[in-house]
Amino acid sequence: MTLNLEAEARFGFICGMHNPRAARTIVELAESCEYDSIWVGDHIEFPLPLLDPFVQLSYAAALSTKLTFGTAVYLLPLRHIVPTAKQVASLDRMSEGRFILGAGVGGEFPNEWEACGVPRSERGARMSEGIPLLKKLMTGEKVTNPDGTFYRFDQLTMKPAAETPSGPPVWTGGRSAAALKRAGVMADGWIGYSVTPDMYEAALTRIETAALDAGREIDRFGTGDLLFTQIGDTYEEAFERANAHLSMRYAMDFSNATKKYCALGRPEDVAERYNEYYDAGCRHFVLDLTATGDDLNAQIERFGKEVRPLLSF
Predict the structure, then answer these.
(1) CA nearest neighbour of 72 among 284, 264, 310
(2) Which helix H or strand E contains 139, and what residues bound it?
(3) Architecture of domain 10-222
(4) Which residues, at least 6 apart from 171, have a Cβ–Cβ distance to it below 8 Å?
(5) How many CB atoms sit inside 10 A of residue 34's CB?
């Protein structure tokens, strides 16, 4: 593989921070358990309550000087790219360059797209047009795009530029052929979601091929995975808890996906599954611990204390 993966594995988790006290608790827990990052999701409408991701992360970034913060994933085509570029550059500054923009096309909740006036059929095309513009706008240099299909503007200079000279890393999601090609052609990384280790490895191969075909020379390519995880005393206990949470979250029976895509069971079972994803090329694990409140905090601690010592990497 010639994607130049990161040398070391990193660990973060996805959560929601619904008020200042929750944010302080989560940041303190992440640092005390030696995680590298905190991630949040994004939806306008969702079965579970979600605050705006950039508002959450800007508050959390003020509470830590070492954690990285990311979105997994921000629905980039749902918004106009120009104000989004202003927000992303601002968050990159407020986090002192410790921000990863995980971006995706979403689409599983049609109502939020209709409410925002964005046809779902345009998601991929808006994403492909928007990412290069986003990167240019964050440099603080003058940008012109008079002939764009979705975003048209002339002689626009957005200041200040992002803290990171080239803008924060943009990691794209998605499993389709178009999404993987987009990652190889224009992204700084890819974050998997609902994929097996074999699917993950195959996806990186397709991304690599797209990058080579585009003539890209990539110094470092980020590889993440949003991995559903539940630690229990038995597989059955872990499955029951994870499946109940995921079925509620996605308002559907998630049983087959829970069996296929999750890391479940005793600490040694979970560690074995993580080893498989590492061997497939994942270097930044974003734990989705299929829990909320005190249960989530307990899972965060258990992974740090009981699973990480068992990993082979």
Answers:
(1) 284
(2) none
(3) Alpha-Beta Barrel (3.20)
(4) 70, 73, 100, 101, 102, 103, 187, 188, 189, 190, 191, 222, 224
(5) 9
Instruction: Copy the structure tokens of residue 306.
Output: 């009981």
38 forms beta bridges with: 13, 69
3-state secondary structure of 33: coil
**For the chain, how big is the Rg over CA atoms in Å?**
19
C-beta pairs of 55-59 under 8 Å, 24+ apart in sequence: 56/16, 56/17, 56/23, 57/91, 57/95, 57/99, 58/90, 58/91, 58/94, 58/95, 59/17, 59/20, 59/23
Whole-structure pTM value: 0.97
- Please give the backbone phi and psi of residue 43, each rounded to the nearest 5 degrees, phi first: -155, 150
Per-residue pLDDT of the chain in tens (313 residues, 90 and over written 9) = 678 999 899 999 999 999 999 999 999 999 999 999 999 999 999 988 999 999 999 999 999 999 999 999 999 999 999 999 999 999 999 999 999 999 999 999 999 999 999 999 999 999 999 999 999 999 999 999 999 999 999 999 999 999 999 899 999 999 999 999 999 999 999 999 999 999 999 999 999 999 999 999 888 999 999 999 999 999 999 999 999 999 999 989 999 999 999 999 999 999 999 999 999 999 999 999 999 999 999 999 999 999 999 999 9
Contacts of 231 (CB under 8 A, 6+ apart): 238, 265, 266, 267, 270, 299, 302, 303, 306, 307
- Coarse DSSP helix, strand, coil percentages of the chain, rounded to the nearest 5 percent: 45, 20, 35
Paired tokens of 180: 């993987």
Q: 189-193 and 222-231 as β-strands: parallel, antiparallel, unpaired? A: parallel
The secondary structure of residue 169, as a DSSP letter, is: -
